[in-house]
Design goal:
This protein is α+β, with helices and mostly antiparallel strands and 248 residues long. It has two domains: 95 residues, no CATH class; 117 residues, Phosphorylase Kinase, domain 1. The chain is built from ten helices and seven strands. Strands 1-2-3-4-7-6-5 form a seven-stranded antiparallel beta sheet, sandwiched between helices. A hairpin with a 2-residue loop joins strand 3 and strand 4. It is globular, with a radius of gyration of 18 Å. The chain starts with 5 loop residues before the first helix and ends in a 7-residue tail after the last helix. InterPro entries: Anti_sigma_zinc_sf, Znf_put. This is Putative zinc-finger domain-containing protein. Pfam families: zf-HC2.
Length: 248
Amino acid sequence: MAGCNREWFDNISAWHDGEVTPEDAARIEAHVAGCGPCRRAAEVLGGVRRALVAKADREVPQRLRDRAEAAAARSPRAPRRGPWVITAALAAAAAAAALLVGSPSQGVGAAMADELVSHHVRGFARERPCDFESPDPDAVAGWLEGKLGYAVTVPPLSGARLLGARLCQIGDTRTAALMYESGDKPLTVFVPPPGSDAATAARALAGRGVGCTQGPLGSAICARSVEQPVFAVAEVDVAALAPALGRR
């Protein structure tokens, strides 16, 4: 599955915020109509806006606000785009906080859920989603162990095709991200290192088998603790994601 590049993602962000000319809007809309990853990015931004409208009276937690502003300050495009980068990041943080309130997360807090879904969406919005492309689980496991220093089990997922892997960071810990395609939907499986906060949270959510919760922006987050604890994230409902990890 091909992703799209950062320039198009930024164009879509500006288009969604009404910061483009009519000519650019027509060009972006034509691109989105024919590009799956950009269409998903546009849908995510739309979900953020709808979530904020629905929960406009909910205050953004200061912890998420600080994190969003720090991320915006690191963006190389922030000086040109002005307040949009901060606005978008705060919108995502507010949506995550609003949509996770009352969810049966059992150890998956709002900040971690936000990170998991963000890494999933951004990974598949890239021109090449994988840092290492291969459908061979052994090859992918070997590459990840060489990069991260811990053994990674690459699970077979029911109805999903392995695309490869990339590296990401959950909290302060470098983590393996396995990239799959399930039908026409992207799916990311995160395999955190043993003893990490993410591994502990995955075990707590999974219980004795597979456990799931609703993530931000309509995504599902499931965890399995057999062999290694893992998180799976996809833009589907929980009932559709859980069977891929072996829930009966």
